[in-house]
Amino acid sequence: MTTALITGFDPFGGADHNPSWDAAEELAARAADGRLIAQTEHTGLTVDIHRLPVVHEAALETLDAAIAAVAPDVVISLGLAGGTDAVRLERVGLNLRDARIPDNAGAQPVDEPIVDDGAPALFSTLRLKAAHARITAAQIPVQLSLSAGSFVCNEVLYGLLHRLRGGQAEPYDAAAPAPVRGGFVHVPSLREADCPVSLQQAVEAVDLLLAASLDDRPDVEHPGAALH
Ligand code: PCA
Q1: Ligand 1 atom showing the smallest separation from residue 80 Cα
Q2: Of 22, 116, 159, 197, which is least surrounded by CB within 10 A?
Q3: pLDDT one-digit tens code per residue, 39-53
Q4: Ligand 1 atom closest to Cα of 52?
Q5: Three-state SS for 137?
Q6: Does the model's pTM come out above 0.90?
Q7: 40 within some domain
């Protein structure tokens, strides 16, 4: 048995939905029917979805509880990046909270660390380059992204990576094997009529990322990074 934990978020900023949760639900529906590409490549794969609050600290507490309940083999968290036009595979979590808008509990931390004395940045341990190649081949708009921002999504990415490393702050060894791979994907506003990515495409992209990441080999050396 292999278990993937997928998270999405509550709506925030006055919106009535969050497409990251739409994507998590569709992924779970495909998994329940055995329709995931990742399931054809990794037999016995099940998907558990959990919804996180858009609240500093509480998001990570909910994630901790989900990890404890599910004991996942891989974790992919999903969030909305409004105004973007591709699936964004986030490479880096920064140890920084700097919120441009209040979270759903009204807090707006500015220039604080997420983990006191934590490493300044942690890298996603998903096989992002391998996934980028496969998602591009499926003709789904996708980008490798060097910043998940400094709001709750970045907090979940950094906090997830910190926890999957056993909560160790230092030293950070990017070459050390990851016992449980984890990372973050930002999706565009999938329900908007002019969005260049459909919900089905976003779900397929996460499916391909899951398939690529359930693999012990190191990521491929593929020059998929953006120039700027
Ligand atoms: N997007 C926000 C937080 C929740 C979400 O879906 C972000 O990018 O930080």
Answers
A1: 6
A2: 116
A3: 999 999 999 999 999
A4: 4
A5: helix
A6: yes
A7: yes
